[in-house]
Amino acid sequence: MFVGRKLLQQTITLFAQVRMVSSSSSGFRVALLQLTVTADKSTNVANAIKRVQQAKLNGCTLAILPECFNSPYNTALFREYSEVIPGGDTCKALSQAAKSNEMYIVGGSIPEICDDKVYNTCTVWDPNGNLIAKHRKVHLFDINIPGGVCFKESDALAAGNALNTFQLGKFKIGLGICYDIRFAEMAAIYRKQGCDMLIYPSAFNMTTGPLHWSLLTRCRAVDNQAFVAVASPARVTDSNYVAWGHSMVVDPWGKILEEASEKDMDLYVDLDFGDRENMRQQIPTENQRRTDLYDTIDLKNKV
């Protein structure tokens, strides 16, 4: 009986320590959930919710799901799997998961149907289950690499026309989806808007993944002196589109804090934004930009 009470007390103490890390004023713990995506939408969503619950038990304040986590990444299927946001089943499940686990969820992306157009859309939910941000993929993935990969999202998807951020406590976070990460101007606008972190749910492929996945993630981190997280589906070799995997979090110095393999797995990473402030003070590029010679501007919002 005494041993049982002692074990219980140790468990409570450990959970309190984890909670303290996750709610620190200088940072929080983030989960990147690298899920296996199947053709069964309900199974995909149920698996995502289960992994969010596990992230909560591991002391995470924020969970990030992959691009197209509820559907195969296939232009021929996007419309079939599409849902209204926020009224669809996937959004209802994410809202309930955020509320019941009292955490933030970046809902990767799902195919969204709106006015008969389909978008690749990321949703963000707060600990009360409220939808606090929505980002439609701005840059559609239309590429043709002979002997490598040919894919044309514009055959099935419409492009988003806005940049989107959300607040997690005192931290501001900018959103992109996969191909958006290649456009440095977009990330630079987020930096000018005061973002501390950039998140890109993504699904790079077996051609561009080995070459550019880590490189682009580290570039966006160093360029903007911000944390950058990229969350991929796990690799399924017999799928129509084979994802690279390797979800990762990079710090403002360009250091990879944690990186997944190609397998189905989760990462739990403690982020200390004091490190970001130190880097910005030691290498003050924001104050050294020659705006008399060049600038990056948000034409839509006149930033």
Automatic annotation (TrEMBL):
<keyword id="KW-0378">Hydrolase</keyword>
<dbReference type="InterPro" id="IPR045254">
    <property type="entry name" value="Nit1/2_C-N_Hydrolase"/>
</dbReference>
<dbReference type="GO" id="GO:0050152">
    <property type="term" value="F:omega-amidase activity"/>
</dbReference>
<dbReference type="GO" id="GO:0006107">
    <property type="term" value="P:oxaloacetate metabolic process"/>
</dbReference>
<comment type="similarity">
    <text>Belongs to the carbon-nitrogen hydrolase superfamily. NIT1/NIT2 family.</text>
</comment>
<feature type="domain" description="CN hydrolase">
    <location>
        <begin position="28"/>
        <end position="273"/>
    </location>
</feature>
<dbReference type="GO" id="GO:0006528">
    <property type="term" value="P:asparagine metabolic process"/>
</dbReference>
<dbReference type="GO" id="GO:0005739">
    <property type="term" value="C:mitochondrion"/>
</dbReference>
<protein>
    <recommendedName>
        <fullName>omega-amidase</fullName>
        <ecNumber>3.5.1.3</ecNumber>
    </recommendedName>
</protein>
<dbReference type="InterPro" id="IPR036526">
    <property type="entry name" value="C-N_Hydrolase_sf"/>
</dbReference>
<dbReference type="GO" id="GO:0006541">
    <property type="term" value="P:glutamine metabolic process"/>
</dbReference>
<dbReference type="Pfam" id="PF00795">
    <property type="entry name" value="CN_hydrolase"/>
</dbReference>
<dbReference type="InterPro" id="IPR003010">
    <property type="entry name" value="C-N_Hydrolase"/>
</dbReference>
